[in-house]
Amino acid sequence: MKQIPEIRSDNGIQTLYVHGEPFFALAGELHNSSASDLDYMEREIWPHLKGLNMNSVIVPLYWETIEPEEGCYDFTLPEGLIRQARENDMHLIFLWFGLWKNAESMYVPGWMKRDSETYFRARKVSGEPINTISPLCQAAVEKDRAAFTAVMTRIRALDEEENTVIFMQVENEIGLLGTERDYSDAANAAFEGAVPQKLAEVFGKQGTWREVFGADAEESFMAWHFASAVETIAASGRKAYPLPCYANAWLKQYPWFPGTYPSGGPVVGMHPIWRAAAPSLFAFGPDIYVPYCADILDEYHTPENPLVIPEIRKDAVTSSYCLYAFGKHNAICYSPFGIEEMTMDPSKIDVPPMEVMIALNIDPSAFDIAGSKDHLAATYDFINQVKPLYLKYRGTDKLHAYCRKGEVDYGCAVHLTNYDLQIAYGPRMSGKPLAAGWIMELEENKFLLVGMQSTLTFRCKPGVNKKAEVLRFEEGRLEDGKWVRGRILNGDEQMSIRLGEHLTAYMLELFQY
Questions:
Q1: Is residue 125 within 8 Å of 179, Cβ to Cβ?
Q2: CB-neighbour burial class of residue 350 (10 A; exposed 0-12, middle 13-18, buried 19+)
Q3: Cα(18)–Cα(28) distance, rounded to whole angstroms?
Q4: Is residue 167 a contact partner of residue 238, using CB atoms and an 8 Å limit?
Q5: In sequence order, what E strands does 152-278 have?
Q6: C-alpha 475: how far from its chain's center?
Q7: 159-182 burial string, b = 16+ CB within 10 Å, else e?
Q8: Sheet holding 333-336, edge to edge
Q9: Is 259 left (phi over 0), alpha (psi -120 to 50) or beta?
Q10: What pLDDT is stored for residue 501 in this prediction?
Q11: Are 90 and 49 spatial neighbours (Cβ–Cβ below 8 Å)?
Q12: Interval 105-136: pLDDT, tens
């Protein structure tokens, strides 16, 4: 019986299922142009993904290569990528570079780029066109819809039984840069009209865009039209092959005004509009290159929005954020960007120019891969091996996850059934992970401790006139959810329970006297 990958609710937790089993995408996203040549992929990319314990890779599909001539499709690239992924025992998450990539129309076919009258661009208030085809251009949206649907039809024919492709990203970092909204003739006319009835019902207010959304009118207007266009594209593609689909977001960040980040994209404040306009999408995932990644994970995971991380920094701290994403937020996917570079010599990595990183508000250290490979590989291996226990305890009060969130974040307190736990964080250091970890309460007095850069101190509950002491302290590892004991550390080691620089696992049993 064929089982198409799908999102199911497990006790209220949105979970990806592949071949009828829960699947956690331990992934990495390739650089934008890496997948445009199959020989290059064979020679330069797949070998560099080995040793990271990945099970999935996010790979672009370029509309311009698939429909080089209007109405004529060439599926050589997706077919070859699926074949190569199978040869490398990897799943694929395809990233559809269609009408919009990083708020511009970079990957639309040449025949569309040259016909700016039919496929009109968004305009600034001055009337100047920008390199972004307007989402109000129905002719362009229809062409994208047809191409994406053809791709999904072909993927189904090739892959419905094997499920190499597990879900899809539709477009990339949608929105408008350099202007808060589209001021084309079509957009101006629509902006003066009433908000759609569906939005009026969601927000409980009728009127024009300005009357309903006030100072957020321009961004809300663009969010509705971008999301509506993506819905047209995604819904048609999913009718051909109902793989789960999501969209990603360039973060809203300093200097905070729409247009300094892509206006209309699925940032948190626009989620109600995107959910109303694009019900075919199961999630809106953030692309994270800021120093405060854990705060973004907290912000984007909501009951309505399962956590998908399609792009995140790839320096050593990414292993800490990965642990936190799954332990705290039941992540569906975690994926550092430019993953093929993580196993390379750091001195040979091309990083974006400093002026580009400044312009995009990117933390330059996000691209420093010193130490990253071993730390991420260990974390991915742990997520793989802990899966049976994780499925049992996630979403309950028996699994606690933490991560250092800033320079003045020195630790946290965790309240367990019979004990209180104080966690002290180690300092942030270049080339090393941040303090992060899991505490899994297996029994009232027995705990699985996993993490790095932390010191743990257990104490009895307030008002209990007893001391907490170690009954048994073991180091070890997990294999398919089962604890494999190493040394027993009941000597001087128990005086201080420390999780070191590398991912460490302990089994701890306490007693009170």
A1: yes
A2: exposed
A3: 18
A4: no
A5: 165-172, 245-250
A6: 32
A7: beeebbbbbbbbbbbbbbbebbbb
A8: 25-26, 333-336, 308-312, 281-288, 245-250, 165-172, 91-101, 56-62
A9: left
A10: 94
A11: yes
A12: 999 999 999 999 999 999 999 999 999 999 99
- The reported pTM is 0.95
Which pLDDT belongs to residue 359? 66
The secondary structure of 315-364 as a DSSP string is: STTHHHHHHHHHHHH--SEEEEBTGGGTTS-GGG--PPPHHHHHHTT--G
Euclidean distance between CA atoms 438 and 455, whole angstroms: 13
> Tens of pLDDT along 134-190?
999 999 999 999 999 999 999 999 999 999 999 999 999 999 999 999 999 999 999
Measuring CA to CA, which residue among 355, 347, 348, 306 is closest to residue 329?
306
| Nearest-10 Cα torsion for 138, 143, 147, 149 | 40
Q: Which residues contact 391 (CB under 8 A, 6 or more apart)?
A: 10, 22
For the cut 70, the answer to whether the pLDDT of residue 274 exceeds it is yes
Question: Measured between alpha carbons, how far is 305 from 287 in angstroms, rounded to an integer?
Answer: 15
Closest CA to 174 of 109, 219, 120: 219
- Name 387's bridge partners: none
**Is the separation of the CB atoms in 137 and 64 below 8 Å?**
no
Q: Which helix (H) or strand (E) holds 58?
A: strand 56-62
Q: How far apart are CA 395 and CA 138, in angstroms?
A: 43
Strand-pairing partners, residue 6, are 17
Average pLDDT over the chain, rounded to whole? 95
Look up tokens 């590398």; give the residue.
502
N residues, the chain: 513
Secondary structure letter of residue 25 according to DSSP: E
Measured between alpha carbons, how far is 104 from 121 in angstroms, rounded to an integer? Answer: 10
Identify any residues that bridge with 14 across adjacent strands, giving them in sequence order.
9
- Cβ count within 10 A of residue 217: 18
The pLDDT tens digits for 357-394 are 776 667 778 888 888 999 999 999 999 999 999 999 99
493: nearest Cα among 508, 479, 478, 511: 508
Give the separation between CA 192 and CA 242, rounded to whole angstroms: 36
Q: pLDDT tens digits, residue range 400-429?
A: 999 999 989 999 999 999 999 999 999 999
